[in-house]
Write a structure and sequence with these properties.
Strand order of the largest sheet: 1-5-6-7-8-9-10-11
CATH class: Alpha Beta
Number of helices: 10
Number of domains: 1
Helix content: 25-40%
CATH superfamily: Metal-dependent hydrolases
Largest sheet: 8 strands, parallel
Structural class: alpha/beta
Radius of gyration: 18 Å
Mean pLDDT: 95
CATH topology: TIM Barrel
Number of strands: 11
Oligomer: single chain
Shape: globular
Low-confidence stretches: none
C-alpha cells in the first residue's frame, strides 16, 4: 500500500545556484539577496526561505515525506544563451547528486541550442524525478512541436514533465507585488495547456505531464471552448494538475471537470503556503499519495 505523501512543487535554491546568480552582471541576477529579473520589480529574497533544515522541519510538520524541488523558471535561466545558462543549469541539476532523503528534483533543460544527449545524462542523475519546462516555450501548437524533441527525452526515460510559469514581459511600474502571479503566470499556463490539448498527445503519446497551479484553470474554459468550435474530449489519464496557490473552490471546480484522479498536491513553497482543502481524508490521500505516485511512476487510474 502506498504511503509516501508528496509535495510535487517547491523551490529551494542550493548555495551553488545562489553564487552563480551573484556572479552575473545583468538579470537574472542576485545583488546580495535582491533578485533582479527583466519583467518584474526587484524582489528581496528572505534567506530563511532557502534554508534546507528549516524547510525540512516545515515539511515534517505538514506530514510531507517527499518534496520535489523545482528551478524557478520565471528566472529565465533555461532560455539564456548556452554560455550563460551552462553554469546556472549545472549548479541546479548537480543539486540532485547531493539531496538527502525526502528531497528529489525536477531537472531543468537548456532550451537554446538544446542537446538531447546532454539532457538524457541529466535525467539519469540520482534523485531526478522528471523534467521541468517553462510554459512560455509551449504557448502554441507550433511552439510545442519545436519543443517536442526535448520533451521526448523525458518520454523515452519514462519520466514526467512539469510545466511551470516562465519569465513575464515587463510590467508597468507600481503594480502590486502579486501582479505577475495573477496575470502573466496563469495566462502562460492557459496557453501551454491549450497547446498541449490541441497537439500534445499526438506528438508525445506516452508522456506524463503535469501543469502547476491547476494549469491556470484552463480546463474550466471547456464550455467556452465548445462554443468556439473545440471540444474537451475524453479526459487524458496522463495529464495532471498541481494544486498550489488554490483552495477548495477552485480545486472542487477542477475536480468536476477533470476528476479527482488528475490532481496532485503542491505548495510552491516558499512563495505560497499549504492549504487545507477540507475535502476529506480520501481526497487528501488521492492528491498527496496516489496521484503523485502515478505522475512520477506511471500506472493506471
Amino acid at each position: 500500500m502506498l504511503t509516501t505523501r508528496i509535495d510535487c512543487h517547491q523551490h529551494l535554491w542550493p548555495a551553488a545556484l545562489v553564487e552563480e546568480l551573484r556572479r552575473r552582471t545583468r538579470p537574472p541576477r542576485l545583488d546580495g539577496w535582491e533578485l533582479q529579473l527583466v519583467g518584474e520589480a526587484p524582489y528581496v529574497v528572505d534567506p530563511a526561505d532557502h534554508d534546507a533544515s528549516a524547510r525540512h522541519r516545515a515539511d515534517a510538520a505538514d506530514g510531507i515525506d517527499l518534496a520535489l524541488l523545482s528551478l524557478s523558471s520565471p528566472l529565465g535561466i533555461e532560455l539564456l544563451p548556452p554560455e550563460e545558462s551552462a553554469p546556472l543549469l549545472e549548479a541546479w541539476n548537480a543539486y540532485a547528486d547531493d539531496l538527502p532523503a525526502g528531497r528529489d528534483l525536477w531537472a531543468a533543460p537548456r532550451l537554446v541550442e538544446h542537446d538531447t544527449s546532454e539532457l538524457a545524462r541529466v535525467l539519469a542523475r540520482p534523485s531526478v524525478r522528471g523534467l521541468q519546462v517553462p510554459a512560455t516555450v509551449m504557448a502554441t501548437p507550433r511552439a510545442l512541436e519545436r519543443l517536442a524533441p526535448v520533451l521526448r527525452v523525458a518520454e523515452v526515460a519514462d519520466l514526467p514533465v512539469l510545466v511551470h510559469p516562465g519569465p513575464v514581459t515587463a510590467a508597468e511600474p507600481e503594480v502590486p507585488s502579486w501582479w505577475a502571479a495573477l496575470t502573466g503566470y496563469p495566462a502562460q499556463l492557459v496557453e501551454a495547456w491549450f497547446a498541449w490539448h490541441a497537439a500534445g498527445r499526438s506528438l508525445l503519446p506516452r508522456l506524463r505531464i503535469g501543469f502547476v497551479a491547476l494549469a491556470g484553470l484552463a480546463p474550466l474554459h471547456h464550455e467556452r471552448l465548445a462554443q468556439r468550435g473545440g471540444s474537451l474530449g475524453e479526459i487524458d489519464p496522463e495529464v495532471f494538475y498541481e494544486t498550489s496557490s488554490y483552495g477548495r473552490q477552485a480545486v472542487d471546480a477542477m475536480t468536476r471537470v477533470v476528476g479527482a484522479d488528475a490532481l496532485v498536491h503542491g505548495t510552491d513553497r516558499p512563495y505560497a503556503s499549504p492549504t487545507d482543502l477540507a475535502l476529506g481524508p480520501a481526497f487528501d490521500r488521492a492528491v498527496q499519495v496516489v496521484n503523485p505516485h502515478r505522475l512520477l511512476n506511471g500506472g493506471t487510474r
